[in-house]
Amino acid sequence: MTDIRPAEERAAELAELAARVNVCTVCRLAETRTNVVFGSGNPDADVMFVGEGPGQQEDEQGLPFVGRSGQLLEQLLGEIGLTREDVYIGNVVKCRPPKNRDPRQDEIDACKSYLRTQLELIQPKVAVTLGNFASKLLLRTDTGITRLRGNAYEWWGRLLVPTYHPAAALRGSTRVLDEMRQDFRTIEAIIAGKLTRRPPQPAAEPEQPEPDPQQLDLFN
């Protein structure tokens, strides 16, 4: 449902939510975190990025996508005429999983209402999932990122563009970086209103088992 309130009211509610999340102790990740990483950026952004969860530097600074991954993200944004301040950046879970392991189901469940409310309040035109975990989770599929990327999918009243995590491009793959640039041009086209085609939801790869709906349904 679209929130028709002025941007200032939605931004104030987002700040209130951040204050609540910063003292959240619902799941086990509260026991090992240094800082909650709620999200940052423009609370009225057209583009919202969603990663898996904070890493060590993010946990230390309380900000999403810092360090080299953040620098590459800013570079790619600059290539389509955007800055970090123009977009909003968040994660599926708001606290760092120990040793950067994948978030567990109870941790996802503890945080999913926060992500849902962020999307409701920010109302981006396009959601961008960064990496395999976030893309598969939000699109409710077992299909990997290499097959998912390259399209814009209808998702929760908007378009969703899956792309690689910046860390994948930093490992030295020219192909990954080139394909990320293609995905960012798709983002640019959506913002400009030049891409409104809404492909069907991706099907799971035939050789993979069917996804567990309970595990993958972030917005049930």
In words, what does this structure look like?
A hairpin with a 2-residue loop joins β5 and β6. The protein has one domain: 3-Layer(aba) Sandwich (Uracil-DNA Glycosylase, subunit E), CATH 3.40.470.10. It is of the alpha/beta class. It has helices spanning 7-21, 56-61, 67-79, 105-122, 132-139, 145-148, 166-170, 174-191, 213-216, and strands spanning 40-41, 47-51, 88-91, 126-130, 153-155, 158-163. It has 9 helices and 6 strands, in the order αββααβαβααββααα. The protein is globular. The protein has a 6-stranded mixed β-sheet with strand order 1-3-2-4-6-5, sandwiched between helices. The two termini are 14 Å apart. α1 (7-21) runs antiparallel to α4 (105-122). The longest helix has 18 residues, at 105-122.
What name does CATH use for the topology? Uracil-DNA Glycosylase, subunit E
Helix content: 40-55%
Return the CATH class. Answer: Alpha Beta
State the low-pLDDT regions, or none. 203-216
Question: How many beta-strand elements?
Answer: 6
The CATH architecture can be given as 3-Layer(aba) Sandwich
Gyration radius, rounded: 16 Å
Structural class: alpha/beta
Provide the spatial order of strands within the biggest beta sheet: 1-3-2-4-6-5
Quaternary state reads single chain
Percentage of β-strand residues: 5-15%
Cα-to-Cα separation, first versus last residue: 14 Å
Keyword list:
9 helices, Uracil-DNA Glycosylase, subunit E, 220 residues, six-stranded mixed sheet, alpha/beta
